[in-house]
Write a structure and sequence with these properties.
Number of helices: 4
Helix content: 25-40%
Largest sheet: 7 strands, mixed
CATH topology: Aminopeptidase
Strand content: 25-35%
CATH architecture: 3-Layer(aba) Sandwich
Distance between the termini: 27 Å
CATH class: Alpha Beta
Structural class: alpha+beta
Number of strands: 7
Mean pLDDT: 90
Number of domains: 1
Shape: globular
Length: 151
């Protein structure tokens, strides 16, 4: 069973999960990892979700303000042993709900072409492909997406 905790980037379980995420991304991104990691600092993230499966930390995600209408989904990760159990969808749903509660209208995100499972999750959750934004604008390995949330 999945349970969700809202917290901040100071959370111990979140920081541990992010270390695992970064190790996974270092492999997937290869030589491009240092470019992406510069945009994933934890100090500016105030809205964090940690998912627990049978009381064990299983996954995480976060949102941070992109502009006056939009929150950016960051640091999505599920430990391999908990994948396929609804953890990622629960985290994403909670992040969308929190975005709406905070008065924002959209969620945007960037993921990589080497993360097909993430792309599939976002598409089946109602995210649509958009032109790459911001620092990802000319990055050919990036995939950017957007979804309207209700508030």
């Amino acid at each position: 069973m999945v349970s969700i905790k809202r917290t901040s980037s100071d959370d111990f379980d979140f920081r541990h999960l992010v270390k695992l995420l970064d190790a996974d991304l270092a492999i997937r991104d290869g030589k491009d990892h240092s470019f992406f990691s510069q945009y994933n600092k934890l100090d500016s993230i105030k809205h964090v979700v940690v998912a627990y499966f049978d009381n064990l930390p299983a996954g995480c995600g976060a949102i941070k303000q992109y502009d006056d209408e939009t929150m950016e989904v960051k640091r999505m990760f599920v430990k391999p042993e908990f994948r396929g159990k609804g953890v990622a969808r629960a985290v994403l749903t909670e992040l969308e709900k929190w975005t709406a509660e905070l008065g924002y209208s959209f969620c945007i995100l960037e993921t990589g072409k080497k993360q097909p499972e993430a792309i599939s999750l976002y598409k089946t959750s109602g995210f649509e492909l958009i032109p790459n934004y911001g620092q990802y604008e000319k990055v050919v390995t990036s995939v950017c997406m957007k979804k309207r949330v209700t508030h």
